Amino acid sequence: MAQSHRKRRTPAIQLYRFKWSGKSTSGRKLSGEMVSRSKTEVGTELKRHDIIIRRVRKTSSLHGRGRIKAQDIAVFARQMATMIRAGVPLLQALHIVTESIEKPVMVLLIQQMINEVSAGASFSDALRRHPRHFDQLFINLVEAGEQAGALDQMLERIATYKEKVEMLKGRVKKAMWYPAAVMSIGMGITMLLLIKVVPQFEDMFHSFGAELPAMTRMTLHLSELAQAYWLHAVGGLAAGIFLLRRAARRSPKLAYRLHFLLLRLPIVGDILKKSAVARFSRTLATTFAAGVPLVEALQTCSGATGNKVYQRAVMQARQDVATGQPLHFSMRMTNQFPSLVVQMISIGEESGALDAMLNRVADYYEEEVDNKVDALTSLMEPVIIVVLGVLVGGVVVSMYLPIINLGTAL
């Protein structure tokens, strides 16, 4: 399905930023900037607003370089919701949003959608032709909003959902990168000492003519290894990470195994579990509240968990729901979801307020992730001192031991 959408995608276009000046029919001087494909289009647009053109000058070209982030899509959804709620027609709203965006690659994307909508496509169809930037959840909710005449509400819901998910992702990334950064800095400083500082001491130790302490000999040996193989080690590590990531993309079994191992890590694994549950709950609440059938909503949620283990668990629950089983029972059978989540979803199903209960679950686990990340940050502060003390302090002490011993002997 996605392949067919890619084939129908509108060819890339070239846009430019123009500065213009002119005056209104009453004689008041006006000026501004406009993004368009040519001076002719700028002139046509200005004349449509009864502006007498004095000068139009091309200032720069907009290239499709760069990367569209989830935050850009959330801002776009929020701006479109505001425009449509104010009664601005869809095509005009897209034009207005384009003028307010500074990121060239995002401007190009919206301009392509403007051309598609102008050619007769619906907003959801235009989004569907850009699957790299708009996921199935976004498209489904926009389509539901178009059919129900509540597009502004759906776009607002999408924006809120994406903002909360990105905030949660940021917390998880902080939990993952903070320990890695600490260890990398510690190892980097140690390698610098072994490669640049220790060799300076080695020449001095040879002049002593005495047997060196075991700790010093070990450090000198590590220094020799570091000087000879540090480039191989860095290259091997980079190549190993690259090959592992590539293999994980190609092998679903390997990707599942890696995600399974990540969930077993101390502290970080618990953060990843709670994050997956929060993202699942938030996504299901958003889609279910928009009127998407539960089986279809679970299909969308499986990819939103961010973890292969929970993705498989959601798909298993979906199969059970499709055969007529209640959602809470299907989730319990996967043995992946906490009992608290299963119980709250059971209450939501019985009371007819499943979306509200799912939002409460998401709020609870997002707060849990936030608390865990704060606890990890606090825990890492003493670990930083210990790691740097052992690595850096060990090298420094081993270099001064012979000097201390010599001073004692004298």
Automatic annotation (TrEMBL):
InterPro entries: GspF/PilC (IPR003004), T2SS_GspF/T4SS_PilC_CS (IPR001992), T2SS_GspF_dom (IPR018076), T2SS_GspF_sf (IPR042094)
Main location: membrane
GO biological process: protein secretion by the type II secretion system
Membrane-spanning parts: 176-195, 227-244, 383-404
Topology term for the membrane: Multi-pass membrane protein
Localisation per UniProt entry: Cell inner membrane
Domain spans labelled Type II secretion system protein GspF: 76-199, 280-402
Transmembrane among keywords: yes
Top-rank taxon, per record: Bacteria
Similarity comment: family membership: Belongs to the GSP F family.
Protein name per Swiss-Prot or TrEMBL: Type IV pilus assembly protein PilC
Lineage: Bacteria, Pseudomonadati, Pseudomonadota, Gammaproteobacteria, Oceanospirillales
